[in-house]
Write a structure and sequence with these properties.
Number of domains: 1
Bound molecules: 3-hydroxy-3-methylglutaryl-coenzyme A, magnesium ion
Number of strands: 8
Radius of gyration: 17 Å
Structural class: alpha/beta
CATH architecture: Alpha-Beta Barrel
Shape: globular
Helix content: 40-55%
Strand order of the largest sheet: 1-2-3-4-5-6-7-8
CATH class: Alpha Beta
Number of helices: 12
CATH topology: TIM Barrel
Largest sheet: 8 strands, parallel, barrel
Length: about 300
């Protein structure tokens, strides 16, 4: 078998990507408990919420209150999505130390998700990133629809590579190349990485898979073979983007951990503790967790 990296970092996006798409109103106290449990599970990076317009994503409207309530362990990174300067101001007031900007590789999705074209969003993100860096914050970036767009279909890999590079040029420390609608398969991942890694060095590259077609774990395995060491996943497999029709949950953290543990790839995260975190919030969500690992557990 190909040599795999001995250790990878997981960005736990359950409290943000997981909860943003849920229709039930999740009480702030439960979100806080969810984040605290994910910290207790040993996560080193947790995306806690999003300072986006509450008119666009009401579920994230309590971002400041969630940040105020969580227990922040030293050495753990707690981040939030920020779409514009108003969002950055809110994030800074809430004491957030790491933000994430999110651009798209397809024009139509950019307009649906941000009400802006790609170039317009980059102009704004330059201001947001400059101000965040000046304030001593770290900035991560997402590049949505990197493997396909729900409106435009296939996306040219050259465009993905150029935009990923542009996001890093803004001063972000890492770009999460994202499969917003869960359409990627390992062949496509492998081909994109062959072309991408010469331009976006491995320490600056993360992958963000949704599991709509059941290929997310296979995609991670393909990416591990290329030396990628940073992956996003969501406790319980919750998730989806309200502006990406047909997209279902993110790759489940439990499923990812089960595979990585089996491969002997270290994460520092306890699988049992993540299960406890996602099952603690299941009642409020009102439907079973999509994670296959969780569903296979005896009742
Ligand atoms: P807009 O309507 O063009 O902006 O939205 P606007 O400036 O006209 O503002 C509209 C209203 O929202 C105004 O309020 C603003 O003050 C307010 P009003 O005057 O009508 O009372 N507003 C805000 N309030 C609080 N915080 C803010 C903020 N900004 C404006 N930051 C905008 C443009 C970018 C704001 C909007 O499109 C937006 O918030 N979009 C975010 C959508 C979103 O969160 N999508 C899901 C996350 S992305 C994702 O899931 C993909 C990812 O997981 C990777 C992947 O899988 O691909 C990351
Ligand atoms: Mg996502």
């Amino acid at each position: 078998m190909t040599t795999l990296p001995p250790r990878v970092t997981i960005m736990e996006v359950g409290p943000r990507d997981g909860l943003q798409n849920e229709t039930a109103v999740i009480p702030t106290a439960l979100k806080i408990d969810f984040v605290n449990r994910l910290t207790a599970a040993g996560h080193q990076a947790i995306e806690v919420s999003a300072f986006v317009s509450p008119k666009w994503v009401p579920q994230m409207g309590d971002a400041a209150a969630v940040f105020k309530g969580i227990r922040q362990e030293p050495g753990v990174r707690y981040s939030a999505l920020v779409p514009n300067c108003a969002g950055l101001d809110r994030a800074l007031s809430a004491g957030v130390r790491e933000i994430a900007i999110f651009a798209a590789a397809s024009e139509t999705f950019s307009r649906k998700n941000l009400n802006q074209g790609i170039d317009e969003s980059f102009a704004l993100y330059r201001q947001v990133t400059d101000a965040a860096l000046q304030a001593g914050r770290r900035v991560r970036a997402y590049l949505s629809t990197s493997f396909g767009c729900p409106f435009e279909g296939p996306v040219d890999p050259k465009r993905v590579i150029d935009l990923a590079d542009r996001l890093l040029q803004l001063g972000t420390y890492e770009v999460a190349v994202s499969d917003t609608i869960g359409i990627a398969h390992p062949g496509q991942v492998s081909r994109l990485l062959d072309a991408l890694i010469p331009r976006v060095a491995l320490p600056h590259l993360a992958l963000h898979f949704h599991d709509t077609r059941g290929t997310a774990l296979a995609n991670v395995l393909a990416a591990l073979g290329h030396g990628v060491t940073s992956f996003d996943s969501s406790a319980g497999g919750l998730g989806g983007c309200p502006y990406a029709p047909g997209a279902t949950g993110n790759l489940a953290t439990e499923d990812l951990l089960y595979m990585l543990n089996g491969l002997g790839v270290e994460t520092g995260v306890s699988l049992d503790a993540v299960v406890r975190a996602s099952t603690a919030i299941e009642g409020a969500i009102g439907h079973p967790m999509p994670s296959r690992y969780v569903r296979a557990l005896p009742n």
